[in-house]
Structures are given as structure tokens and as C-alpha cells.
């Protein structure tokens, strides 16, 4: 849904926040790291992903392997 729809519906916004949190929790459970990024150029990301104009990116969640302490 467009961001304007989400801002008027806190219940929908809460669902997306919980989904992002679940992604991060699952990453941790699998021994990976993640971070939620919510500030980015919406239009540039939409073009990069070839997403339709009526869809708005809310979060970017990079996931990666954590460094291990070898000492």
C-alpha cells in the first residue's frame, strides 16, 4: 500500500513493523546479522526494483554473516 495509506492506518503500520522485526529475529536465530533501514530515496529504490508506481518501499533490510571472533 502507498505510504499515505499506512500513515492513516496505525494498525497496518504496526503489521509491517512486526514483519520487519520478525525478519531480524529470524536472522539472529540463524546466526546472521541484519539492520532495518527506513530512510532512503523511495523513487530510486522503486526504479532499481522495477516496482510498480502504486507500491512504496517501507524498509530495506540488509542481511549478512556476522564476523566471528577468532581469538
Pick out its properties.
71 residues
Structural account:
This protein is mainly alpha-helical and 71 residues long. Helix content is 48%, strand content 8%. It has three helices and two strands, in the order H-H-E-H-E. The protein has helices at 3-8, 10-29, 42-49; strands spanning 32-34, 63-65. The protein has a two-stranded antiparallel sheet with strand order 1-2. The longest helix has 20 residues, at 10-29. It starts with a helix and ends in a 6-residue tail after the last strand. 0% of the residues are buried. The model has no long low-confidence stretch (mean pLDDT 85).
What does the radius of gyration come to?
15 Å
Largest sheet: 2 strands, antiparallel
Could you tell me how far the N terminus lies from the C terminus, measured between alpha carbons in angstroms? 48 Å
Shape designation:
flat
Strand content: 5-15%
The H-and-E topology, N to C, reads as HHEHE
How helix-rich are the residues, as a percent range? 40-55%
Mean pLDDT: 85
Strand neighbour order, sheet with most strands: 1-2
Task: Identify low-pLDDT runs.
Answer: none
Structural category is mainly alpha
Total number of beta strands: 2
| SS element count, helices | 3
Write the topology of this structure:
Blueprint: H1 3-8, H2 10-29, E1 32-34, H3 42-49, E2 63-65
Antiparallel strand pairs: 1-2
At a glance:
48% of the residues lie in helices and 8% in strands. It has 3 helices and 2 strands; from the N terminus they run ααβαβ.
Amino acid at each position: 500500500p502507498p505510504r499515505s495509506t499506512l500513515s492513516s492506518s496505525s494498525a497496518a503500520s504496526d503489521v509491517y513493523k512486526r514483519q520487519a522485526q520478525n525478519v531480524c529475529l529470524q536472522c539472529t536465530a540463524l546466526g546472521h546479522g541484519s539492520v532495518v533501514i527506513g530512510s532512503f530515496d523511495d523513487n530510486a529504490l522503486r526504479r532499481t526494483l522495477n516496482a510498480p508506481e502504486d507500491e512504496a518501499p517501507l524498509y530495506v533490510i540488509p542481511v549478512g554473516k556476522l564476523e566471528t571472533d577468532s581469538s
